[in-house]
Amino acid sequence: MWCFYLLCVFLATVSTGTCQCEIPKHHTEIGCQPVHDDDPECPTRFDCDHLTTRNSSKCHYKGISYDLGEQVYAEDICLDACTCTDYGFDYGVNWHCPSVDCSLGTTIAGYECYKQHSFDRCCGENFCYAPDEELPVVQCEYNNVTYLHGQHIETGVPCVKCICEPEFDGTLDGPGCTTTYDRHSIELHGSTLISAGCAPIYYDISPQCLYTYICPVGGEYVVTPDNSTESDYKCTFGDLTFNVGEKLFTWAISECAECTCSTPTLLTCLWNTECGTL
Ligand SMILES: *[C@@H]1O[C@H](CO)[C@@H](O)[C@H](O)[C@H]1NC(C)=O
Ligand SMILES: *[C@@H]1O[C@H](CO)[C@@H](O)[C@H](O)[C@H]1NC(C)=O
Ligand SMILES: *[C@@H]1O[C@H](CO)[C@@H](O)[C@H](O)[C@H]1NC(C)=O
């Protein structure tokens, strides 16, 4: 029964579909506890005290502490194992997950070469053909661009990856396309940024597509709406403190990301899709 109970708690706090709570996943991913106060349905804030009390000389992942030099699997075929690393003063002890190096290519005199990709490998395999040969038969078209068999299709939508395969039907939710909402573990890949006071930005909140991070660089300030009131719990971003309902102004991407203190303690940032992609 406890198993079922845990599952319920997980769904109720993480899934946006089951209880109409548009709660981004970053708090639960870094181990903060949802606090409901007077709202039985949706958490009103998260208790992230463990971030300040746990041993900052270790790395942390899914509730387990690791010593310097210890490794965990990166959960992403394009990343090597993550190693607990000491970054020094600014970023402290955090995970380092280097990217797999796919740069090695082949050139064969007199041949055209390109990389053929598949979803189960990070790096594509070289495919070469003589220019006077017929092109590889499978071709796909998306947004007026023609792709050859195995090429990555430029979808313009983060978290949706498509590869030109015979079955590709021109839609982003059809064959040849896959979504990667779960790949970007904030604990593994964003912990240095979160430590530095940054906030995650979502391209989409439902389903949750983590897109990038926004970091304090100086010159940001708090925008207070007319009806704002002092709240018991605050959000933080770098050295700034926000009441619930207050927003962040940042010079860096002011038009393209809207960051609001909706569920302390981290800001909730949404990407303005009219800005296209970075
Ligand atoms: C934190 O971890 C370091 C490295 O493992 C250890 O030397 C230190 O004693 C720990 N500190 C506390 C307060 O547990
Ligand atoms: C694709 O090409 C057609 C015809 O050349 C043009 O009418 C259309 O606007 C183009 N679409 C895009 C997305 O560029
Ligand atoms: C403040 O005003 C905004 C926009 O008019 C509204 O969406 C928000 O719910 C209001 N907040 C409070 C605390 O009344």
From TrEMBL:
Keywords: Signal. It comes from the Eukaryota. Residues 1-19 form the signal peptide. This is VWFC domain-containing protein. It comes from Diploptera punctata.
